[in-house]
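User: S8 family peptidase, Paracholeplasma vituli:
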Amino acid sequence: MKKLIMMGLSTLGLLMTIMVVVKTPVVASYEIIRMTNQADEKIVFEGFTLNQSASTEEIEAEVDETANEIVTVAVQFDYELISDARYYINRRTNINYFIAEQRRLSKQYHTAMNTELAAALELEGYQTQYVSTYSPFIEYEFEKEVFVENVDNIVGELVESDVVATAYIQNSLDKEAANINTAMFTTGSYYPVINGEVNGTGVTVGILEDGIVDKKHTNIAGSNISVRDEWWFIENVSSHATQVASVIGANTGIARGAKLLSVELYGGASEEIDWMLDRGVNIINLSYGESAKSVTGTYSSQSAYMDYVVRTNFVTIVAAAGNFGATHGYVGNPGLGYNVITVGATNLTGTYREDYSSYVVLKGPSKPNIVAPSGIKIPGYTSNVTGTSYSAPVVSGSIALLMEEFPEYKLFPEKVIALLSASSKYISGFPNYGSEGYNYEVGSGLFDYKEARENPNYTYSYVNTSGTSGVFKQVYLYVESGKTIKAALSWLLNSTNSTTIKLTDYDLRLFDPSNRLVASANSVHNNVEVVVFNTSTSGLYRLEIMQNGSLANGKDWIGLSYSIR
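Assistant: Predicted structure for S8 family peptidase:
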């Protein structure tokens, strides 16, 4: 494996310290990490009841009985690329050029490495193969009958190969797929939009769905949208995708000046995400998820992949939590990503959680992060649309408005997560009581664009390279008596593109003017911490980020934000 990595590096003429030409020079430094853990389980089954110890006979029997027509084998290679280039940007940096250059370098590296390693992996009989260009991932799709016939050879090669860190054998995904102005009024974007202050210009939003947007629909026709609809892809026009686009922007939505990208999900998501990254995407909306029969509330490779994309390519991903709140309540993948903003649903005026909105997680981060209105009446459709599928695009479109005014948010998804968490509204009857400061059902609360728009000066980004425990950062804020302080800390999971989690433990603490600890969030399972405190004394308060133990993966990118109401 070491030889292969060095071959890949030699191919590109790396080790990488590359000068990016912008208005002010920026050095893009990359670190290549060998994933020596090789995961606790080299073979992981998703959508099956099998485990690591299953025999090939047991695998063959269950796949034959329960699999859909396609079995996907998602192979994660034994390397990871971490970029710390954002550390060097400044106010004169051309943000859009910077993002394009970083993605070019990331694509160049991943493509060379993956092509090299794929050649060393001797899998046969697959129907299609996709080599990711932005992550250490390759996807093979097998017809069910072919997989069953060749299960010994397939599993044997995956287990024995030195280039494979983890292989995910997946049952093919079953996807499930009010007035917009009222939702905008509820979240605070209505007046800035209708007054022409913001419209998302200069921001690109990707829509990954069960089909493609109908470019001929009156809500879409003539708007700034690119749809992957080529003869060599099997793409189907989807009313669900068209409705999501109608909420985000186009002719009827929130960010009508934003560029939209639409692509249909088929099998794994890496090919579709690559297509959007190639086209400069800043925000990706995922209003799809696992079906009722496949959702388990457990972090899977779908979410792990999204975590890697966020951390490595500086893109903000927004996902629907799922619509199983009235039954088992499980949040579905990819909405279980640590670095993903997962959105639950409220009624149109944001006064309560809709019963169907999912909130239960068995293994993974606390979700949802926030909630937003649903029950929207979309122009051109006869009925109000309900579901977290329509709450997520309310947030995606609103983030596009924020990125238009504050372009640095394009580069710092951890700041966006912290900002949205700190600026969210309290919903009566849903108090914050978890160790991370979340409410079990609505996360940090109701999404509030108006408050988020007012808080850029109270939102920070840090990089932590310290290997020791202790106070990492302190921020002082003067607050008058009778105000409410809400602060949020967020840091990106350094995903190794696997379901083996390496997460540094941070706490967020608030001290009053007498140096008394008055609020703290100290979870060990989450990468977002939220504190809320109603002040009774005017004076200088102090927010403190506390690191517990060593860094999980060398460096952490951290976002901190607070609001005072």
